[in-house]
Amino acid sequence: MGQIQIKVETENVESGFHCKVSQGWQNARRIGLSLAVTCRNTEVTSEQPQRDRFGIYKEAFPACGRQVVRSNLRTARPAENTAMAPLSRSLSSLVKHTGCLWRVGNFRSSQQGLPNHPFRSGWMKKNFRAVSCVGAGVQPLLQQPGAKNGAASVRSSSSEGQDATERLWSLYKETKRQTEVICTSSVDPDTIFANNEMSLRDIEIYGFDYDYTLAFYSSHLHTLIFNIARDILINNHRYPEGLRKYEYIPDFAVRGLHYDVQKALLMKIDAFHYIQLGTVYRGLHPVPDEEVIAMYEGSHVPLEIMSDFYGKSTHGHTMKQFMDIFSLPEMTLLSCVNDFFMRHNIDYEPVHLYKDVKEAIRDVHVKGIMYRAVEADIEKYIWYGEQSHAVLKKLSAHGKKMFLITNSPFDFVDHGMSYIVGKDWRDLFDVVIVQADKPSFFNDRRKPFRRVTNKGALLWDRIHRLEKGQIYKQGNLYEFLRLTGWRGSKVLYFGDHIYSDLADLTLKHGWRTGAIIPELRKEIKIMNKPQYVHMMTWLQALTVLIEQMQAHRDPATQAVVEEWIKEREAMKPQTKDIFNSQFGSLFRTYHNPTYFSRRLSRFADIYMASISCMLKYDLQHTFFPRRTPLQHEAPFWPEQNSSGLGVSSPLLAPQDQSGV
């Protein structure tokens, strides 16, 4: 009968060491093996007596189904460097914690790719334990591929392929069984997540954008923008009348997508500039992976054709990245017009189409069409705002200074804020700036501030100071800093657009930044579902099975691994479709962070679903990013969850665990 063998060597003779085996004996027997522990010259197997002449003994813990092998090394003698049994590396590493289930335990932190929320359950502690301790004085149970002794081969004692196949599938079933009994845990959608450590006690001044930061809009607004822009194309740009048959599709696109202007392709790109195959659309239909690879000579998008710093397709860049929530109807309209032309075999220039749609969308905003429609039926279009009012009141009560910088015009902001906060909303802000023309506001030193009357008239006097209760238009950040003195990390600014609102502030001026990501709430609710948790846990476990077993080149093992690879490939689209059937999650490709996630983690110190999340925290709170291990780092604690703390730590109060 084959064996799982653990070999331990140490020079530390001051005290005995403990090597915990979680379900090791019963798992070994389940797949037809015995378990042996070799310490120096002494070996303990599952058939040996409780104690031997070197003081090695085993204790049973029936209550938890665990056995512990202990050794007193004071009288031990050096052992020969005997090789591990053939099955030791593969089965011990995969059935047990080491090298496999540790990664399963961390799957949710790696799934986000960003600092994550503390778990509320100890499923990893409950189900998975290490076969051996890899602490001081203990030789690691596993060796990486390419180590001195090489990868262990998978074969039975008789070296028959059939036995190896059976054992691999037994391993597969046991791993899957353990992932199926994992308890589900949830993340609070109202949590504030940290990319960078930041304490609110250091913040003296709070700044806000308006749209999708203080005011949140219903889906009716996107339908309105789509319909108006579509009609502008038909009426002003002489596009075919048949386009009126197209209606806005609320769940078609997600924010952060790239659009290839010359090829008329909408796609999702990851943090490493790779296209996520299966998410490339021409019009309303997906483009086959083979065609995408042929067009781009692979799936990588070179830096020189990516969008510029602000996501725009300028100066030779052929890609446009849609980062604004208002861009959802623009992406949908582009796709619908492309679809119409292709359906009717109309020859067209994609660059002209992109520019016409862009101009039509701009007219909806610049010509005030959208603003007037919202003001006429504000209850229909503004979704909620009472919690924004509560946040502003809280900050004001604590003596914090506040300012508003928005690209929207005064009348539109005044109607909205009066609806959300009340007619006296301006009393809460020390400075109000409208039509700021971000991101130029943060870079162009030439534009001076101009005062606006309550009726919208522009005054011509020079601005020597920014006064509370007054409204100012345009201007620039450098003049703002000179007049207010609000510099550096004592300022925290909130906005929804990662480029236009946050990038320059954090890179050039040292302000702290908070990103408002309304999509977070929906995605977290999906991730909290048991269906998603089980799917991702098994996908990660299956990936590690493949990773560990791929080194074995015998035909029987390779055949099994190929089956596992096929299953993994079949599961990947499910991880996309659960969020959005066309483009998947805003934050993830199949496994890598998206390009959107990369920019979010770089330009936002903290991020949240809405400004109302601030109500959960006092103004002395410090937000800490989670220290998840880098690829080359070992976990610091063997029972560490995504929060970086032991799942059973008594030091965390429940309210703290629901923090960042």
TrEMBL record:
Keywords: Hydrolase, Magnesium, Metal-binding
Recorded GO MF terms: 5'-nucleotidase activity; metal ion binding
The keyword Magnesium is annotated on this UniProt entry: yes
Signal peptide segment: none
Gene3D superfamilies, A to Z: HAD superfamily/HAD-like
Keyword Transferase: no
Family: Belongs to the 5'(3')-deoxyribonucleotidase family.
Name of the featured protein: 5'-nucleotidase domain-containing protein 3
Organism: Crenichthys baileyi (White River springfish)
